[in-house]
């Protein structure tokens, strides 16, 4: 728990804003999935997003790297506003890493190629450099010996760690995680969470959608609770788990804890 | 899942561990009891079927081996069936063409380390089967006594030999499949030197028949081919051992792609280059494009050029389109269009100095290749024949089929991508095209391209009938290919697109590196089916009077004065040839599927 203490009391007041959302709204047809979401995430901050199913958590973080388009409001990532300008999108995407629930590794490429493909073709890194960086990353996520295997030959936990390495290989400024452990068997969840904790400790800015309350309590600087496309409550883990103000938060916590 | 690895990781040839474990085999008596005579009904069915099959076989054999059959018509016209009216004094060019294919095949087999091992017992089982079949032929066919006896002898020997080998070897002995194939081919070719099949030929329009083995002009080159295959195989293995496997494979793949062009336009047709004209026209065009275009591309491939690069590329495209408004050499226009394509693709291949230089080198290579090809096509041929094309028969069939495959595949992929793209204009155009082509009988398209298409061309452009119908075949086949590829595209999950997008890949990068490799892998079975279809549909060339294999078999040979009425023999022979090609393709695709692990996961 010493990590938790140090993480939770981190002073981020002087840090610059990494992500700013202002009144972001999004509709699927008539259905409003995001309702005027406003939040600011500081550099090096770790934010955990909680909320019941269908509350718009995925939709929101997918808007942040433009996998979904918002219709109203402003999203600014690292000082660049997201517009429909194509080059703008590619620039943002290469600065924002994303990890998916279903891993989404490229099954026809080896682990090493999965990781080096984007650095070589998007970042224009020489192949040798990209490969040594990839091996270092595999070392960091604890599977250096799997470089030449195909994703189908790995366990779920290993696949998700490759996916994290793949996103990190682009040297992103922000990492988004959409329920990274929900598709994993219980015994593999810890190995992925450990990698994420290490990443948080190293100072990466992270937004994590998860149902892992232990992780939220231990690592998060702030917790954002969403429901029906709206941000209902924001606070430190301590505030959130011991003394939530909103009734809906209390209800959610009583169901989940 | 380990199968996936075999695509890239070469495994040592002696490896036997990946053979499926042997299924313990029942003794023949018990096997028959279990599978054929398990009940009264089953027994009756078995007996009935065996009788029916025997009757059919007897009928076929009675037809094939009847003394009335004019198989000498087939034997005499081998050259016509395989190569059409290709000039006799240039015939070595045909063998060189075959040699190119054999050498590429040998090299590829070696470099990819193809071929595995099989259990000797399963080979011996085939030995028993073939031996039994030969004996059966001896029993059923309408032979004279001595011929019958020789069939019994050969079949009996085969069975005896299989038995002898089986009792002398261990149950788990394995043999290399390549070695088995080589022995088979060697026996077949060797028999040409030993067994007196007889020697039939047309010499100066007269049929000449003599006893003895087949002509030296047939068995000689065939023997050379077998030796060439073996030598190139070992050469391929040497190369694979010494060099990193990546680039020999790339070079070989490109050589396969280029081989039909080289064979048709350079080996078989032999262009008569006008070197004076080349020095004054083609060389300057090459230098202008290679150097000027190269400099432009070097600049455009800079990672820092940004917006300006896109504008310059767009201007290049407009300029290329504008060349079609004023009269000028066709090559200049084609190369201008190519340059525009390269300019538009430059950002994808941008990078450090080495990457940019590589891009420019590829461009120079493309210019050289295209100019060479276009000049060759436009030069008069030194090899000419009196038919509408310089060759015919199976050679023509294969030429049209392979050009169609090579051209319609990329076109089909482009159509499929267009049909699934977000841009409504592309989608509508592609859908319209595909639905139109699929709604029209192929014969209509064929006749259109053979008769009407030349009338639609601009005045200074001419195409031969073969080129016109090949275009027709290509456009037709592409529509079907597109639908097959689209099926593959639809099988790719959304997550793959999203993962690629989240990494900042452009649409082109996403398509080339992520989507297409997976989609095409899934589409292999229907694509091969389509390819086999195209190969067989080339027989429709006979309808518009081109001298393809079927036309030679159906119309030419049965009209020769000595062989009137031999049409059935010729059709049977042509069917066997078609079947062998189609079966080979089918087996190749099964191997490919197994290697790529299609249908697993
Ligand atoms: N492509 C879509 N079309 C229509 N509705 C959608 C689409 N994607 C999401 N929605 C709706 O938007 C709402 C928010 O979805 P979202 O996936 O963001 O929820 P979530 O909070 O991530 O839920 P979960 O915890 O189940 O992942 C849901 O009601 C969902 O049905
Ligand atoms: Mg979700």
Written overview of the protein:
The complex is a heterodimer of chains A (257) and B (601). Chain A is of the alpha/beta class and 257 residues long. Chain A has helices at residues 2-8, 57-64, 86-95, 111-121, 127-140, 156-168, 186-201, 213-219, 237-242, 247-256, and strands at 17-28, 31-42, 46-50, 72-77, 80-81, 96-99, 174-178, 205-209, 222-227, 230-235. In chain A, helix 6 runs parallel beside helix 7. Mean pLDDT of chain A is 90; it is low at 1-8. Chain B has four domains: 2-27 and 90-261, no CATH class; 36-64; 69-86 and 386-601, MetI-like fold; 273-379, no CATH class. In chain B, a hairpin with a 2-residue loop joins strand 3 (199-203) and strand 4 (206-210). In chain B, helix 11 (275-300) runs parallel beside helix 13 (330-345). The radius of gyration of chain B is 28 Å and the shape is globular. The model of chain B is unreliable at 1-17 (pLDDT under 50). The chains are: A alpha/beta (257), B mainly alpha (601). The complex binds adenosine-5'-triphosphate (ATP) and magnesium ion (MG). Adenosine-5'-triphosphate (ATP) binds next to strand 2 and helix 2 of chain A. Adenosine-5'-triphosphate binds at residues 28, 31, 33, 51, 53-59 of chain A.
List ligands, each type once: adenosine-5'-triphosphate, magnesium ion
| Gyration radius of chain B, rounded | 28 Å
Coarse shape of chain A: globular
Q: Give the mean pLDDT of chain A.
A: 90
Overall number of structural domains of chain B: 4
Runs of chain B in which pLDDT lies below 50 for 5 or more consecutive residues are 1-17
Number of strands of chain B: 4
| Elements of chain B, N to C (H/E) | HHHHHEHHEHEEHHHHHHHHHHHHHH
- According to DSSP, the number of beta strands of chain A is 10
Question: Strands of the biggest beta sheet of chain B: in what spatial order?
Answer: 1-2
Number of helices of chain A: 10
Outline the biggest β-sheet of chain B.
2 strands, antiparallel
The CATH class label of the largest domain in chain B is Mainly Alpha
**Main beta-sheet strand count, sense and barrel state of chain A:** 6 strands, mixed
Q: What is the CATH topology assignment of the largest domain in chain B? A: MetI-like fold
Strand order of the largest sheet of chain A: 6-7-8-3-9-10
Provide the β-strand percentage band of chain A: 15-25%
In the predicted model, the low-confidence regions of chain A spanning at least 5 consecutive residues are 1-8
SSE pattern of chain A, N- to C-terminal = HEEEHEEHEHHHEHEHEEHH
Oligomer: heterodimer
